[in-house]
Amino acid sequence: MQNDRASFSLWARRAAAALIAVIFLPIAIFAITFSGVRSSVSEPDDLIEALNEADFYNYTHDHLVPSALDELFQEADHDVIRVAEPWNEDVAFALRTAFPAGEIRQETESVLRAAWPYLWGWEDEFEVAISVAPRAARGFDELSRLVSRENPDVYDPLIELLENRVEEESAEYSVTSVDMGAIAESHLSDIAPSDWLFPRIGQAVNDVGAYYIGETENSEITIPIDDRARAVQNAIIDVLTEADIGDASLMEAVVAGLNASMQMEALFVPGFGDVDAELVSGFILDEISTNELSRVKAQVIQDVSAYAVGLSDEPLSSDVELSLAQARIRAPLAIAAEANSRLEAEFNAVPICQPGQTPDLLMRESLGNILPPCVISGMTFDEYQRVVGLDAESTVREETRRMIPDSISISSNDVLTALDAGEMDFIERVREIIAQGVTADAANLTAALSEELYEDPDQLREYIRAGIEISDQTLEDALGDDDESALQDARDFLAFSGFAQIVLWAFAAIVLFLLSLVGGRGWEGRLTWASIVLGIGAILAWLLATVPLDLVVRPALEGWADEVIADFTDDAAGELVMRVETLVTAMLDAVSERVKAQAIRVGVVAGVALVIARLLAPDSVGRRPAGR
């Protein structure tokens, strides 16, 4: 009977111990898993290693930057960006040079290592300063080198852009009868050949870089073009040849020269009026030799174009002589014939002398009083001229010929007088550009591109100069007020997790101690029960950290990645999905390894405890007390 009660007691204890073991095992598994997870996330090493394994840093260089630039060039509506599209690979390469993968990894790790104590509540703040200016300088230098090379894919659209700019600016000046777009199109490639243009663009990139990294406060970009003065002069020659200066304006200069040369008194011809310098000039212009006029025109345009590009300080290098030899013969003949015709008409209108009237047939000395008060009936004008001894046509011809010099001199003042305000403004603008170069303002250019490139160009410049400071305040500002409170809750939870882990293991130890008391009667028996159940818990935790990951999680992640990638045609997007899959898998692997390591440590403790229990057991089984 006593043996029956002992046997019942033994089995009752064992049943109770088994029940406590069933309760303990989930607690032990959770404690081991919680400790492993906490061990993994309590330091950034696993995340850092996962990022390295996913190769996010090289992905940034190989896919993210080129993809972002492609999108920018495709969507931007700014002509400068569109023209620069063939340079997108060079821009991407310059960015990779400025921020190589190794440095991005180094800075990322430094931020993570600085932020981790803050996230866990061990520190109240953190700050990491990232230097940008030296790296930006490196990128600008590389970009300057790359764009200095001749690029036929860029040259034609760039010349087209410059043509549009020339036409837009020239529209402000009233250079009449000239298609400035056509002039630009025919001459810009000569003014700015590719072997000259691209090195200047490279220098402009250096100027922009110097402004943004703080080497200079001058945001003006200048491309000197004084070495292209001769090429610009050729374009100006075309402009002036096509413009009115080739015709009316040149004639005005000739008239100015004539007026300065003809200082004789006017000759009055009844019926015709004064034969003066102004009238004679009009006839001279019609009679000047075409070849002579073309020669003078070419000389004037040559000198004016040299003045326009700054190769001369005066519109004419010297007075230009225009021969009037042909005009001196033909113009007097034309004027004399016209004057004689009109004078004859006036003579024919003189009334016939009436009986008792005596016609005035005295000799005349000038044409001013050549007409009599009446004429003899039937007398012709030629007969009358012979009687009074004055040949009107010869007189006008000779007087006019004396008025016309053999040649005239066209001076700089004559040219300046002939050029209208629009033409002079245009020429002075060209002189200014040649002397000062083509200028642009880096700040204004960036502001114009800010919608496509960056919201605040001034802030961008400050970031480059001062560097980037990443701190607890930066993180809080980025999250906003609502997410900031969530961040604080997360920090409080992480800080509390250490205490929770201690409590969890303390509770597990209490349950395990209770198990050992119930299951065993001696220290060796109690230790045996505790070590075996603890070992089983460690094994189960190890299996749970291994089997679901291999059988469920990995296939699910791979299926998700394949499904998402199938929806993308963009290589960069596909690469991103693959790297996210790798990152998540690496993080899960890291957590799994931490949990398994924790399980192994617990298993080792259980094993050591079991060995100790065996050592405590009596040497003879027959002497072992009942229940042990």
Explain this structure:
This protein is mainly alpha-helical. 72% of the residues lie in helices and 5% in strands. It has 25 helices and eight strands. The strands form four sheets. It has a two-stranded antiparallel sheet with strand order 1-8. It has a two-stranded antiparallel sheet with strand order 2-7. A hairpin with a 3-residue loop joins β3 and β4. The longest helix is centred in the C-terminal third of the chain and has 48 residues. The radius of gyration is 52 Å and the shape is rod-shaped. It starts with a helix and ends in a 12-residue tail after the last helix. The C terminus is likely disordered.
Could you write a compact summary of the structure shown?
The chain is mainly α. The chain is 72% helix and 5% strand.
Largest sheet: 2 strands, antiparallel
**Rounded radius of gyration (Å):** 52 Å
Tally of helical runs: 25
Helix/strand class: mainly alpha
Using the alpha-carbon principal axes, give the shape.
rod-shaped
Portion of residues in beta strands equals under 5%
